[in-house]
Each structure stands twice: as structure tokens, then as C-alpha cells.
Amino acid sequence: MKPSKKKKIVLFSGAGISAESGIQTFRDSNGLWEQHKLEDVATPEAWKKDPDLVTRFYNERRKQIMEVMPNSAHEAISKLEESLDVSIITQNIDDLHERAGSTNIIHLHGNIRYSKSSGPDQESQYYPIDGWQLTESDKCPRGYRLRPHVVWFGEDVPAYETAAIEISSADILIVVGTSLQVHPAAGLINFASTNAQKFIVDPNADQLVVPPDFQKINKGASQGIIDLIKILT
Ligand code: APR
């Protein structure tokens, strides 16, 4: 008797899942982009103009991320791996999914705990950052200054195709904590098959524009994910 195939859950997360760990989102009131002009800190042009400012911006975020803990939404998703085939596609550059114990994670926009060369062929090698600080003297073996392993506005999203394939194979797609305003990431939800069950968890889910077959759960990540997992398992 062939064992029944485990249901495949794909979780597509954004900044909102980390909000309950104390990390501010980007576009809520008092969000990150209200305090910093993204063109000054999150574009290749910003890096060329003032790499020290960009490095300081991400050092501050890395320091905060290292000081907070995964929340019960991260933990509930990690626990799901015991019974289901779970993969995570996150827009977040924090490592809270990893620290909660999840193992199958695609970071669409990079991972702040790593750096990469600011020279050509940047995606060939990522270097773990020891502690919270990257400095101007940190260089790659070819002598180029190291930059945060973060996809900036206007840069390609190397993991996009892998993420699209992953979502297309989901039996269940759970979108959580994203305003779906940044492309190409936001368009990934359209790769889910018509037979997949689709949910979106967000306190403002009713304001979000998603295809009609998404079930909207107007709750925060922790309560929303925990309630949803009770229904699904
Ligand atoms: N639980 C769940 N969702 C929440 C919570 C919470 N406690 N608090 C806020 N949210 C929701 C907001 O309602 C909003 O829909 O999280 C979403 C956050 O949206 P954004 O701030 O736009 O963050 P995100 O969608 O992840 O941004 C995408 O933009 O700046 C770039 O690269 C950056 O990856 C980021 C991308």
C-alpha cells in the first residue's frame, strides 16, 4: 500500500509575520519607509552614492533582528513540518523562520545575516556575517567591499523561478503578513494551482486585493496561523 502523499503547504510570508516579534513592517503607520527614504538605503544607486550609510542602515536592522525572538506564528509553522510537507517563501530578510526551526526556506529578497560581494557576479557566494556589524573593511576574496545579501529595489530576484515552481506545486497556499505591493514577489500568488486551497492572513486582509478563491482571515499572524492550522490538520 503506497503511503498517502503528505499534503504540501507553501507559506508566503512578509513583514507582518515578524511584526509580533517587534520588527516594524515597511508600509504600516510608523513603518520603515516612513523613517527612511528607500532610495537612500535600499537601491544599487544608494550603495554607489553612500555605501557607509547603507551599511549602517542594515547593521541597525541586523542588530534589532538579533535582539528579538521568533513568535508563535513562526513556531506553529515550524511545528507543521512534523506532519506536512512545508516550504516557506519569504520576502523577509530576517532569520526568524530559521530560528523557529523551519528548514525549507526561500529568501526572495535575501537574508540580512549574510553578505555578498559588491563586485560583479554577486550571487556566486554568500558570506555569513559574524555578529551584527558589517564594516567598510570587510572585503570579498576578489577585494570588493562586502554588501548586505539583500535584493534592493530595481535588482533581479534570483530565487523567483524556484519560488514560482514551489507555489505551483502547493496543495495549500497560506499568504501571511504582506501588503502584496512589491513586484515581482507579489505576483507569485498567481502561480498557485486552481485546485489549491488559498488563504491570506492579515489584520487588514479585507483591504488586500487577491484572486476571488482566496479565503481572507482578518487576524494577526500568530492567532490567524494557529487557528488556520487547527482547521487544516
Ligand atoms: N500579523 C500579520 N500581518 C500583519 C501584522 C500582524 N501582526 N501587522 C501588520 N501586518 C500586515 C499589514 O497589514 C500589511 O499588509 O503586514 C503587511 C506588511 O506589509 P509591508 O509593510 O508592505 O511589508 P511586505 O509586504 O513584506 O513588503 C514587501 O517590500 O520594502 C520591500 O523588500 C521589502 O520584502 C519587503 C517588500
Tell me what the structure shows.
With 233 residues, this protein is of the alpha/beta class. The protein folds into 2 domains: 1-23 and 70-109 and 157-233, Rossmann fold (3-Layer(aba) Sandwich), CATH 3.40.50.1220; 26-67 and 116-150, SIR2/SIRT2 'Small Domain' (2-Layer Sandwich). The protein contains 9 helices and 9 strands. The protein has a 6-stranded parallel sheet, sandwiched between helices. It has a 3-stranded antiparallel sheet with strand order 5-4-6, covered by helices on one side. Strand 2, helix 7 and strand 3 form a beta-alpha-beta unit. Helix 6 (72-80) packs parallel to helix 9. The structure holds adenosine-5-diphosphoribose.
Q: Secondary structure elements and their pairing?
A:
Elements: E1 8-13, H1 16-19, H2 32-35, H3 38-41, H4 44-49, H5 51-67, H6 72-80, E2 85-90, H7 96-99, E3 105-107, E4 110-117, E5 126-128, E6 146-150, H8 160-168, E7 172-176, E8 197-201, E9 214-217, H9 221-232
Parallel strand pairs: 1-2, 1-7, 2-3, 7-8, 8-9
Antiparallel strand pairs: 4-5, 4-6
The structure holds adenosine-5-diphosphoribose.
